[in-house]
Design brief:
- 43% of the residues are buried.
- The protein has an eleven-stranded mixed β-sheet with strand order 3-2-12-11-13-14-15-16-17-22-21, sandwiched between helices. A six-stranded mixed β-sheet has the order 7-6-4-5-9-10.
- The protein is α/β, with parallel strands linked by helices.
- The longest helix is centred in the N-terminal third of the chain and has 19 residues.
- The chain has two domains: 347 residues, Rossmann fold, CATH 3.40.50; 205 residues, Hotdog Thioesterase (Thiol Ester Dehydrase, Chain A, Roll), CATH 3.10.129.10.
- Helix 4 packs across helix 5.
- It has 13 helices and 32 strands.
Length: 569
């Protein structure tokens, strides 16, 4: 076990006091100015804490964090500033909590509010010194929602945060072939209250010698403009979701020397596209809120992750479940398990297979939702996508559903592409086109949010539904229909349509338990190895029927209509 360093550690790494610590709208803010702002704000903070840091601007956040540390307060970092989030904090933290914000309109009921105004136009104190902070002090508690959507606090001492950044700096300097990070400017699309956003923007500047851009650009044009507003060498701190959106936009990007990505595994294709578009090295960071950042990989060179510093990883049997993987050593205060399935190559290198709680079993085969999502999002034309495993069971087998943002692709084209990438049992029988996913600011799609979103999509009573089905070349029916000219009987095609309807709760409610086939036209044969695309369109008006088209390799093979049996029948 690593012991916590109880010595006093500086608030800032050793650096030129006149060098930029931050950039605001293209204007540098010096280290000297930052120290002066911290010195001005610390005395005006309440005597009791902790502080709830709600600042959106990264510079205001950094000043707030520094002032709270100097005043002796820990900073609580919630995932958002919604009223229910603040209510939970009050319920668990007591009446001594106070809020630090850079938004004069933000309401914080029940909390004293301290407004962090922009004072960077004032001249910095030439005599400002770097404060020292007790390494054992509770410096921050991250309250990010995590993949399950249930907020959990994770306390960090100042010594842990300093050690966390130290090992990252060593790795980044090695990759960039630089002795220090001095002069490197960080542009981040990730909120600073998230562990990754905190470690890789504000703390990487304060404790690692770099500088950060104070904003949080979101739209691709804003990202490009912000990158161009700061000098090289530049680093982009982002996520797979934001990175893919940026590259799909087609906007010309200025040169970027380093790209950092975290929160979800990145495909090698997207990593290569990013390096080619921006000219820099892309590193993925692996870690968790509990452990901090613990490993990296150069995605275009290897699928193997290498731990930071002296961090070691080991497997440990878990009672009643799969083995756990424990990270320990260096800055990690105590052995910390990860909620992932790994393949250990040695104590410091491993492969990542996905989260332990997203392993799935279909027809006796095992995979992970992360693995399926990886292949789904690797398809050209898929802007965003996620697999979901429904709760209900059809014919004794739970079949995954794929939700996609892919306006230029049909369900059949997506299924055909997945057939080249996945085992047959994991190829979805249903693909649902959506406009966007309910992702968090980090690009994360939580388990809870995806489930609620999927159920809402499947329950929509008026939206056309598309799904696809591969027709096996060795289907037993082809032996008798017909030798030399095999085709799939129309009755089986209609059975597939009915099975598709039964997978949509809203359509089952619409048609009842015993619907009637009102019409069917057979327009083209279905041959072995074809891909069927089934489109279901709920009818408007009193009829309450469901029209369907079945396309075979793009050609309409069967069309028709199912209706509910009248109650008097």
């Amino acid at each position: 076990m690593t012991t916590t360093d109880t010595s006093f550690l500086p608030l800032l790494a050793d650096r030129d006091p006149d060098a930029p610590l931050a950039w605001r709208a293209g204007v540098p803010v010096s280290t000297r100015q930052f120290l002066a702002d911290v010195a001005r704000f610390a005395p005006v903070l309440p005597g009791e804490g902790p502080a709830v840091n709600l600042c959106v601007d990264r510079y205001a956040f950094a000043v707030s964090l520094g002032a709270a540390l100097v005043r002796g307060h820990a900073s609580l970092l919630p995932p958002d500033a919604r009223p229910d989030t603040l209510e939970r904090l009050l319920a668990s933290g007591g009446t001594s909590l106070f809020a630090l914000t850079d938004d004069p309109k933000l309401q914080t009921p029940g909390m004293q509010r301290v407004f962090i105004e922009n004072r960077s136009s004032l001249e910095g104190d030439a005599s400002a010194t770097v404060p020292s902070i007790d390494g054992a002090m509770h410096a921050a508690s991250l309250l990010t929602s995590g993949s399950t959507g249930v907020p959990q606090p994770h306390a960090k001492t100042w010594g842990t945060l300093v050690g966390d950044v130290k090992v990252a700096v060593e790795r980044l300097c090695r990759v960039l072939e630089r002795p220090t990070l001095e002069g490197v400017t960080l542009v981040a699309t990730v909120p600073v209250q998230h562990s990754y956003g905190l470690e890789s923007s504000v703390l990487l500047a304060m404790l690692g010698g770099a500088a950060f851009e104070s904003g949080r650009p979101f739209f691709p044009a804003d990202v490009a403009q912000t990158l161009a507003s700061v000098p090289r060498p530049r680093a982009l701190v982002t996520t797979p979701f934001h990175l893919k959106t940026l590259l799909l936009s087609g906007i010309a990007l200025p040169p970027v020397d380093l790209i950092l990505s975290a929160t979800a595994p990145l495909s090698p294709q997207l990593a290569l596209q990013a390096e080619q578009a921006m000219g820099g090295v892309l590193l993925e960071i692996y870690g968790s809120t509990e452990s901090g950042q613990v490993a990296t990989r150069r995605t275009t060179e290897s699928e193997v992750w290498e731990t930071f510093g002296e961090i070691r990883v080991r497997a440990e049997p878990a009672e009643g479940g799969p083995e756990r993987f424990i990270f320990e050593g260096d800055f990690i205060p105590e052995p910390t398990p990860m909620a992932d399935v790994l393949e250990l190559l040695d104590e410091q290198r491993f492969r990542l297979f996905g989260r332990a709680n997203d392993l799935i079993h279909v027809a006796g085969r095992r995979s992970s939702l992360a693995h399926l999502n990886y292949h789904l999002n690797s398809i050209a034309g898929v802007e965003d996508g996620a697999f979901w495993l429904p709760d209900e069971v059809a014919d004794g087998v739970v079949r995954p559903v794929a939700f996609v943002v892919a306006p230029t692709l049909s369900a059949g084209e997506i299924i055909a592409a997945l057939r080249q990438r996945l085992e047959p049992v994991f190829v979805p029988r249903r693909v649902v086109q959506v406009k966007a996913f309910p992702r968090e600011g980090t690009g994360k799609l939580t388990v809870r949010a995806l489930r609620e979103f999927a159920l809402a999509q499947l329950a929509d009573d008026h939206t056309a539904v598309q799904m696809a089905l591969a027709v096996p070349a060795d289907h037993p029916v082809f032996a008798g229909h017909f030798p030399g000219q095999p085709l799939l009987p129309g009755a089986l095609v209609l059975a597939e349509v009915m099975e598709a309807i039964q997978r949509v709760p809203a359509l089952v409610t619409r048609l009842g338990s015993n619907p009637t086939l009102a019409a069917a036209k057979f327009l083209a044969p279905v041959r072995p190895g074809s891909t069927l695309s089934i489109e279901l369109q709920p009818e408007a008006g009193a009829g309450r029927g469901v029209r369907f088209d079945v396309r075979c390799d793009g050609v309409v093979a069967v069309s028709g209509r199912w209706v509910a049996v009248p109650e008097s029948a």
